[in-house]
Each structure stands twice: as C-alpha cells, then as structure tokens.
Amino acid sequence: MNIAFIGLGNMGGRMAHNLLKAGLNVHGYDLSEVAIQHFAEAGGVVCDSPQDAAKQADMVITMLPAAKHVKEVYLGENGVLEVLKAGSLCIDSSTIDPQTIKDIAAVAHSKNIKICDAPVSGGTIGAQAGTLTFMVGADDQTFNEVKPVLSHMGKNIVHCGDVGAGQIAKICNNLILGISMAAVAEGMALGVKLGIDPQALAGVINTSSGRCWSSDVCNPWPHINENAPASRGYQDGFATQLMLKDLGLAVEAAGQVKQPVVLGGMVQQLYQQMCMRGNANLDFSSIIQQYLPQEA
Ligand code: NAD
C-alpha cells in the first residue's frame, strides 16, 4: 500500500516514522524544511506538493495544525481530492471542528473517495511510542479498512460513529481535560499557600475523589510526577495554544447547538491570558502560574 502523509510536524513526523518502521511505503510532504529532513532521514520519500504525494497513493493521512490547513490540502488549488483515484482512503488526524470534515467528506464521496476523521490522544510521547488513541468517525466499512493502518500508530482504535463523531469525542475530552487541569492547579496552589506540603497534598488527592489524569500523571506542581512537563520547566508537552484551540472548538460547537459550556468558557479565558503573556508554547499545565505570585 502507498501512503501519502501530509503534515510531518511534532505528531505527524513521529506517526509517519512508525508507518515506515512497519515497512509501509510512505510519501510525505510538509511546508517545513526541518520536518522534511527528519522524514527523509527515517526513510520516507519526500514530495514537492500534496498532489505530488497523493497521485500514486492508495491512502492519504493528514496531520495538520487547524481546519484552514486541512481544507487547503484536500480542497485547495493543489488539493489531493483532485488527483486521488476512486476507491482511495483518506484519514484526517488533525484536531478540527466536526463540520469541516463533514464538508470535505461530502466532496470526497462525490468522487467515490472514502474519508474519515481520526483525531488522537496521547501527545508526542504516544505518537513516538505508537500508543495513540484514535477516535474514528467513519462508516463501518471505512473503519474496518483504516483500522490496520492506524494500528501501526496507536493501541486504541475507537469507532465513535459516522464522519465527524471522532472530532466530537476529541473536543469533549479536551474540554474536560482543560477544566480538570485548571481545577488541580487551583487546588494545589491553594493547599500549598495554606501550608501543606505539595507531595502530601498530591498523595491525598491521588487516593481520594479529586484524582484525575491532571493530578496523578501530569500534575502541574513540579516534581510530583518526574516525567510530567511541570518537572522540566513546562517544556515539550501539550502546548497551551493547542489547548486554547481545542477549547475554542468546544465553545464554538456548543454555541452552534445552544448548549452551555460554562466552565469551558471560563478556562478558555485563563489559557488565553497565558498565551497573551508569551506562554503559548509552554505545556498547558503551566496554568498553575496563574495562581502563584509573579516572580520578581
Ligand atoms: P505541528 O505544528 O508540529 O505540525 C503541523 C505540521 O503541518 C507542521 O510541520 C507544518 O509545517 C505542517 N503544515 C501546515 N500547513 C501545511 C500544508 N498546507 N501542507 C503541508 N504541511 C503543512 O503540530 P502538531 O503538534 O503535530 O499537531 C498536529 C495536529 O495534531 C493539530 O491539529 C493538533 O491540535 C493535534 N494534536 C496535537 C497533539 C500534541 O501533543 N502536539 C496532541 C493531540 C492532537
């Protein structure tokens, strides 16, 4: 099978590497020279444009920053849907709004091309280790066809429903994550200010009803979890600007169906403030800095 992989950044580069390690034939394209270089070093075939990568492909995988990039790659001037043969498969693993992938799917289906949304959870560590969770929106037949390929990059491949359902699952999960991280940060900062040792407090939370991923795997207080971004200056994690993007998607989607997302709207403002203060690239657990005294 020939695969075209478009978007070889922090996530896509590592995912494409796992496909190459599994012996698949991968043609890749990215706007970034550095991304292309890493892909070439891993044994990928470098292409000059999305169409160049897609013209021989049986499957296209995209891992791009946001909806406008995904639209450009599928439907734009150099869009892959123009050159893909009927019967080919497309997987978009970017995190975008559910409506955009449904719109792209309508065009793809008119050309007899199958497409699914398959956003991921697991971050760059999961991408590297091939242990991502894929949340797939597709009909049954397409799901069964994409699953073996996704299994080279992830360990949980979940069928969420029809096209768009994967993105719904993803934005709801990250809505909860953004809120729970802020809640843990608020509780940890309050406890320490009141005089409890942070290790003791985390120990209690993690054996009590406040326990969650943000408290026991990725605690925002430094050196509670040695592998967490908080223990390395909030570097190399899930960037605050990406969390802000995901909360924006959840709030926008909620607005479309007139559903309240009260806490989501509040934490969106906190992450917005962090980005405005120049911390957009720090891990989102650095939200705890909103609760600590400013350094002199
Ligand atoms: P990234 O910015 O590192 O990579 C995106 C890549 O897309 C870049 O290399 C960029 O040059 C390339 N690109 C942009 N426009 C392009 C175009 N028109 N043609 C070809 N290449 C193009 O971002 P990332 O961290 O890899 O995230 C990718 C997606 O995965 C995002 O939607 C993000 O929300 C989602 N995601 C990221 C993480 C994470 O931990 N980083 C976790 C889960 C989901």
TrEMBL record:
<dbReference type="GO" id="GO:0006574">
    <property type="term" value="P:L-valine catabolic process"/>
</dbReference>
<keyword id="KW-0101">Branched-chain amino acid catabolism</keyword>
<dbReference type="InterPro" id="IPR011548">
    <property type="entry name" value="HIBADH"/>
</dbReference>
<comment type="pathway">
    <text>Amino-acid degradation; L-valine degradation.</text>
</comment>
<dbReference type="GO" id="GO:0008442">
    <property type="term" value="F:3-hydroxyisobutyrate dehydrogenase activity"/>
</dbReference>
<keyword id="KW-0520">NAD</keyword>
<dbReference type="InterPro" id="IPR036291">
    <property type="entry name" value="NAD(P)-bd_dom_sf"/>
</dbReference>
<dbReference type="InterPro" id="IPR015815">
    <property type="entry name" value="HIBADH-related"/>
</dbReference>
<dbReference type="GO" id="GO:0051287">
    <property type="term" value="F:NAD binding"/>
</dbReference>
<dbReference type="Pfam" id="PF14833">
    <property type="entry name" value="NAD_binding_11"/>
</dbReference>
<dbReference type="InterPro" id="IPR029154">
    <property type="entry name" value="HIBADH-like_NADP-bd"/>
</dbReference>
<dbReference type="Pfam" id="PF03446">
    <property type="entry name" value="NAD_binding_2"/>
</dbReference>
<protein>
    <recommendedName>
        <fullName>3-hydroxyisobutyrate dehydrogenase</fullName>
        <ecNumber>1.1.1.31</ecNumber>
    </recommendedName>
</protein>
<feature type="domain" description="3-hydroxyisobutyrate dehydrogenase-like NAD-binding">
    <location>
        <begin position="164"/>
        <end position="290"/>
    </location>
</feature>
<feature type="active site">
    <location>
        <position position="170"/>
    </location>
</feature>
<feature type="domain" description="6-phosphogluconate dehydrogenase NADP-binding">
    <location>
        <begin position="2"/>
        <end position="161"/>
    </location>
</feature>
<dbReference type="GO" id="GO:0050661">
    <property type="term" value="F:NADP binding"/>
</dbReference>
<comment type="similarity">
    <text>Belongs to the HIBADH-related family.</text>
</comment>
<dbReference type="InterPro" id="IPR008927">
    <property type="entry name" value="6-PGluconate_DH-like_C_sf"/>
</dbReference>
<dbReference type="InterPro" id="IPR013328">
    <property type="entry name" value="6PGD_dom2"/>
</dbReference>
<dbReference type="InterPro" id="IPR006115">
    <property type="entry name" value="6PGDH_NADP-bd"/>
</dbReference>
<dbReference type="InterPro" id="IPR002204">
    <property type="entry name" value="3-OH-isobutyrate_DH-rel_CS"/>
</dbReference>
<keyword id="KW-0560">Oxidoreductase</keyword>
